Amino acid sequence: MSGSGPSPTGAGEPYVKHGGPSTPPEYFAVEAAGLRWLAAAPDGAAVVGVREVGRHRIVLDRLETARPTADAAESFGRALARTHAAGAPAFGSPPAGWEGDGFIGRQRMSMRPTATWGTFYAEQRVLPYAREAHDVGHLSAAALAAVERVAERLRGGDLDDDRPPARVHGDLWSGNVVFTPGGVVVIDPAAHGGHGLTDLAMLHLFGVPGLERISAAYADEAGLDAGWEDLIGLHQLHPLLVHAVSHGPAYGQEAGTVARRYR
Questions:
Q1: Nearest residue to 212 via CA among 118, 73, 84, 103
Q2: Given a cut of 80, is residue 9 above it in pLDDT?
Q3: Residues 131 and 151 sit within 8 Å (Cβ to Cβ)
Q4: Which of 173, 215, 164, 174 is nearest to 194 (CA)?
Q5: Average per-residue pLDDT in the chain?
Q6: How many helices (H) and strands (E) does the chain have?
Q7: Using one digit for the tens of pLDDT, what is the confidence trace for 48-66?
Q8: Quick check: keyword Endoplasmic reticulum in the entry (predicted)?
Q9: Which of 134, 177, 253, 261 has the most CB within a 10 Å radius?
């Protein structure tokens, strides 16, 4: 969702992403901070290298693609769990080296440190996008009511667990997971302190080669409790609502269906 990543056609020469007239001045700076923060996780997932960042562009390593393999998928699942385990100061905290909000795709995304995941997720990831989707006619009143009921449960702590804030990619759809000759490299994050299942849920929402291998390896490495799959839909509410804002009512309908399972 964060736009096109490095053109992975060869190594050596850099890849330059340019902004347009409407690109906010901080857009590439927060992307660079997120990439560097993710890359700093010990033994974590490989992250595309940042060579230079400016007001109107970001210069990245150019990636070479390779055929997805089961081994690469499994290694990525374990590495992603280690990235998450590197942690964050709080739920909603921005990446190290950055202060203020960020972006998911071209939409602004709040990053305010919050003590509990449920309150953070309700107030910064679910409700703002649900209300905007409703305002533009892409989320029905009934679906909005279901989402608001889930938000009440989230705020009340009903859906919290004892996991500390994770260092999440934040926009981990398949287009941001690049299989290279050396394994998976991730690009284009919306990095922040969140819940690790949110990254996994986005992979499940949009699909990725080797998803079953990635998920099983992640669950083993992260020590997920039995039944974690039952919460995937809850963590998909945010990307569904983001897409409802920008991509139309079909995503709003799906968000409403998902919300009714957790209200």
A1: 73
A2: no
A3: no
A4: 164
A5: 95
A6: 9, 10
A7: 999 999 999 999 999 999 9
A8: no
A9: 177
Amino acid identity, residue 82?
Answer: R
Q: Chain centroid to CA 168: how far? A: 6
pLDDT value at 10 more than 80: no
> How buried is 174 (Cβ within 10 angstroms: 0-12 exposed, 13-18 middle, 19+ buried)?
middle
Q: What would the two tokens of residue 86 be?
A: 């590197």
Taking residue 100's Cβ as centre, other Cβ atoms within 10 Å add up to 11
Q: Rounded to whole angstroms, how far apart are CA atoms 37 and 170?
A: 12
pTM: 0.94
| CATH assignment of 15-262, among 3.90.1200.10, 3.40.50.1370, 3.30.450.20, 3.40.50.300 | 3.90.1200.10
- 103 closest CA partner among 48, 34, 204, 186: 34
Two structure tokens written together for 176:
């941001």
Q: Taking residues 141-170, what's their average pLDDT? A: 97
- Residue 13's SS3 state is coil
- Domain residue ranges in the chain: 15-262
Model pLDDT, residue 1: 55
> Which two structure tokens, joined as six digits, stand for 38?
């993710």
Q: Which two tokens stand for residue 143?
A: 């679906």
Q: What is the DSSP letter of 62?
A: P
